[in-house]
Amino acid sequence: MNKKFSSLFANDGKWRRFQPLYQAIDYFLYTPGTVTRGAPHVRDGMDLKRLMITVIVALIPAVVMAFYNTGLQANLALQSQDAAQASGWRGVLLTVLGAGIEPSSALSNLIHGGLYFLPLYFVTLIVGGCWEILFACVRKQAVNEGFLVTSLLFALTLPPDLPWWQAALGISFGVVIGKEIYGGVGMNILNPALVGRCFLFFSYPREMTGNSVWVAVDGYSRATPLAEWADPGLTLSASWSDAFLGFIPGSMGETSTLACLIGAVILIITQVASWRVMAGVALGMTILALLFNWAGSATNAMFQVTPLWHLVLGGFAFGAVFMATDPVSSAHTRAGQYVYGLLIGALTVLVRVINPGFAEGIMLAILFGNIFAPTIDRFFLDRHIERRRRRLTSDAER
Prior knowledge:
It is an enzyme of class 7 (translocase). This protein is mainly α.
């Protein structure tokens, strides 16, 4: 930026208190003016900024499905009610834009879904960003790009009709209690986006669970396929392929396993996320689901849910790819990442099958895994240190 303008934010400048905010805008819009010229100093092109941008790129398929499927489910519901247009300001905008409420129109679905997703996302982005800037100014530290990913992940896990003020409250709890009180980015032990969602889940269960929150039409009720599996009074209304592609009710960005798998490929190729964690989650889920399939139950239909169905139900794929692999709150040792993933996958199935009051499970399983990640790492680090000590002692005795 202009040197005269930047001097206002220097240590002796008039606006020095807002230096973190100036740095955040400067780093986001411009290339740093000081770069390393000598090749020996270059070890890796990946820094925190590129890491966060890569995660956002990997989330694009899930975001597109959040737009499309949210609009599709709303348009299908309106069509079943013989409605002429959507209600409220969204209906006016759809009419002005000429999009209508036709489920067979991809443009109508994308615009209608966007009118639900974008407001929630902007609320979480603005509120989460304000908390980040506030803590950065108080601590006199640079504003970190991490809140861009946290706010996007959080918005994708929400039902479409959630009140905006609850979204603001949830992201505030996630950023402040889940991250900032531990010291900010890199210091948190829990995934902040999941902490915020967990807070909303237990504080406002009526807006976060049940059959009436997943389709953005007032007075319309439809259960998710996972709830239909868990409730013996309901009939499964979706095919496996619909669940895999994401054309089912659910949290806006979690319904499409295909979109999550595309994101997983991007994260693995760029080495941003650990494939060991993803493999561990899938393996843990498969082993315990097969055990329940083998045991069977005459009263609990969840015992018969196969691993392929668990993969496409609820937020399993989204959690395994984007939440469990959080580079801060997950396990860091290679062997520990397998155990950490196995724990999350097994716990997810255990909660889904055993707990009749909570059909989901991946959220609590990941938070539980976050708590045990340091212990898992410590176990494998101690084993490694002890193995090297015995090797050195053996070499010295020869």
